[in-house]
Amino acid sequence: MSSSMAFPPLILLLILLSPSPSLSSDPDPLQDFGIADLQSASSINGFPCKAAPNVTSEDFFFSGLARGGNTNNTFGSSVVQGNVLSFPGLNTLGISMNRVDIAPGGINPPHLHPRATESGVVVRGKLLVGMITSGNVFYSKNLTEGEMFVIPRGLVHFQMNVGNESALILTAFNSHLPGAVVIPFTLFGSRPSVPDEVLTKAFQVDKSVVDGIKSNFGG
Ligand code: GLV
Ligand code: MN
């Protein structure tokens, strides 16, 4: 039997067009490393690599997660990102980490990462960690020191400090640049702003409610 009989053209086309499971996170690197040259004028999927003779030990170390950011803000939380933009040594390696500090009662607000699955470990404190699936099922659990969680790629999630001391989480991603879509800012703080008619219709509320929320997020 000829191969075109075994795989009729339509099936062959579907196989070729269907996404490969190996592409569900950043692609594998083609060399040991490629320290990102963030100043490069050329743009590719990722960043061009620094010339090898210019690579130093410093390119493989990052102290940015040693200290937390300021949690004295509306949400009472701070996220310090250790991704390819702050730590160019991660370029093409398909991983990155964040440090999340949350004051008592504070929240890392609902958000999603379009390019990565997230895992995290509670280093200090007590947190309610929750996520919502694409089928609108809410999963959550109170976690304490040493406990871990996972958030599948693209799902909306949050962490809330439900203890009396400041909480610290370290999170890890299977992308060098996971991206973060923070729901309140995305919908109510974008520039230009999402038209009121869209938001009043989507949330089934009056314009005054939309204006009130927009004013909280600079929209
Ligand atoms: C926590 O959810 C984080 O994105 O670091
Ligand atoms: Mn997250």
Automatic annotation (TrEMBL):
Keyword Secreted attributed: yes
UniProt domain Cupin type-1: residue ranges: 63-211
Amino acids binding oxalate: N98, N108, H113, E118
Any GO molecular function: manganese ion binding
First-listed, main subcellular location of the protein, grouped into a coarse class: secreted
Keyword vocabulary terms for this entry: Apoplast, Disulfide bond, Manganese, Metal-binding, Secreted, Signal
Compartments where found: Secreted, Extracellular space, Apoplast
One Gene Ontology cellular component annotation held by this UniProt entry: apoplast
CDD domains membership: cupin_OxOx (cd02241)
Chain residues that bind Mn(2+): H111, H113, E118, H157
Superkingdom as given in the UniProt entry: Eukaryota
Signal peptide location: 1-24
Alphabetized InterPro entries for the sequence: Cupin_1, Germin, RmlC-like_jellyroll, RmlC_Cupin_sf
Family: Belongs to the germin family.
This protein's name: Germin-like protein
Organism: Erythranthe guttata (Yellow monkey flower)
